């Protein structure tokens, strides 16, 4: 009683609240489902396992083990064969490289002997010797040295690819590259047009029969793979080459691409360029076709 007033009666929980409380208490105190206990009681502690259960487990284990053994044997049997094939291919490549190096050295010795004999038989001041020297230089058969212009084409810095061992360039060819054989060929043709006397692409000397092609994702110069950056060196009058090349449409196009696609494009004059001789070219001659047989007449 408070202030002379009787206290209100306590509210008793209804049946629904009591059932919920009992359920929560049962969940916390009896975590095991009653069905498990009932099944264990029906089965009993000494109930034997079914007869077919043990053989089935044994057969399953044997089958899994057999599969693992077969996989292991197959893997270890195929690995030596693949390694043998790889070793044979490597040996063939190395043998071909040794043969090519030997033939190249033999060719160099033969060219040196030929040059010595020509110098002995033809006086250096003679018209024949001078004409021969000009022809050999035009054919790219002699090394040359002099001033000129160097044009460099580079891929954007974001271009990536897997290495493939391309010649000279620092970045390997890949499917994401922008520059192709057409770009290298356009610069080379423009330099010839501007008066270049000798040109080399990534140290490969060009000749009148040189070809710049695209094979898959590789740029080929005379069937030799080159990779970016493409360094195109041209010997000639540097002032004339630089002025005419700078005013050409080719230079304008690649300056635009340098700003739009972020490719590298530079050309600089050089007072001293050295271009080595090209590989010897075997001339091919046309011959008249044989006349058709007239035996039918």
Task: Give a structural overview.
- The protein is 47% helix and 15% strand.
- The chain is an alpha+beta fold.
- Among the domains are: 53-121; 145-275, Alpha-Beta Plaits, CATH 3.30.70.1880.
- It has a 5-stranded antiparallel sheet with strand order 3-2-7-1-8. The chain has a 3-stranded antiparallel sheet with strand order 4-5-6, with helices on one face.
- The termini are far apart.
Q: How many angstroms separate the termini? A: 149 Å
Major sheet summary line: 5 strands, antiparallel
Q: Ranges with pLDDT <50 over ≥5 residues?
A: 159-175
Tally the beta strands.
8
Rg, alpha carbons: 43 Å
CATH superfamily of the domain at 145-275: Protein of unknown function DUF881
Structural class by secondary-structure content: alpha+beta
Could you please say which CATH topology of the domain at 145-275 applies here? Alpha-Beta Plaits
Order of helices and strands: HHHHEHEEEEEEHHE
Quaternary arrangement of the chains shown? single chain
Instruction: Write down the overall geometry.
Output: elongated
Name the average pLDDT.
77
Give the CATH architecture of the domain at 145-275: 2-Layer Sandwich
Strand order of the largest sheet: 3-2-7-1-8
- Our estimate of the beta-strand percent is 15-25%
- Reading off the top of the CATH hierarchy, the class of the domain at 145-275 is best stated as Alpha Beta
The number of distinct helices, counting runs of at least 4 residues, comes to 7
Query: How much helical structure, as a percent, in the residues?
Result: 40-55%
């Amino acid at each position: 009683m408070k202030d002379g007033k009787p206290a209100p009666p306590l509210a008793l929980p209804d049946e629904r609240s009591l059932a919920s409380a009992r359920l929560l208490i049962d969940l916390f105190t009896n975590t095991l489902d009653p069905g498990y206990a009932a099944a264990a009681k029906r089965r009993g502690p000494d109930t034997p396992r079914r007869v077919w259960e043990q053989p089935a487990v044994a057969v399953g284990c044997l089958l899994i083990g057999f599969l693992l053994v077969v996989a292991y044997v197959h893997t270890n049997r195929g690995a030596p064969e693949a390694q043998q094939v790889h070793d044979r291919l490597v040996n063939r490549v190395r043998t071909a490289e040794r043969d090519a190096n030997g033939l190249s050295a033999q060719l160099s010795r033969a060219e040196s002997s030929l040059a010595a004999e020509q110098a002995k038989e033809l006086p250096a001041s003679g018209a024949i010797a001078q004409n021969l020297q000009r022809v050999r230089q035009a054919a790219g058969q002699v090394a040359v040295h002099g001033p000129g212009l160097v044009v460099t084409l580079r891929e954007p810095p974001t271009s990536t690819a897997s290495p493939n061992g391309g010649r000279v360039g620092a970045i390997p060819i890949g499917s994401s590259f922008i520059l192709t054989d057409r770009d290298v060929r356009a610069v080379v043709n423009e330099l010839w047009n501007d008066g270049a006397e000798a040109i080399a692409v990534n140290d490969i000397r060009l000749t009148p029969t040189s070809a710049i092609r695209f094979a898959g994702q590789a740029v080929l110069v005379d069937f030799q793979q080159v990779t970016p950056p493409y360094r195109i060196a041209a010997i000639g009058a540097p002032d004339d080459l630089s002025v005419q090349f700078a005013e050409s449409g080719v230079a304008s196009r690649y300056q635009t691409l340098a700003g739009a696609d972020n490719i590298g494009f530079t050309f600089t004059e050089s007072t001293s360029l050295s271009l080595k001789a090209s590989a010897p070219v075997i001339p091919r001659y046309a011959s008249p076709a044989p006349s058709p047989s007239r035996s039918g007449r």
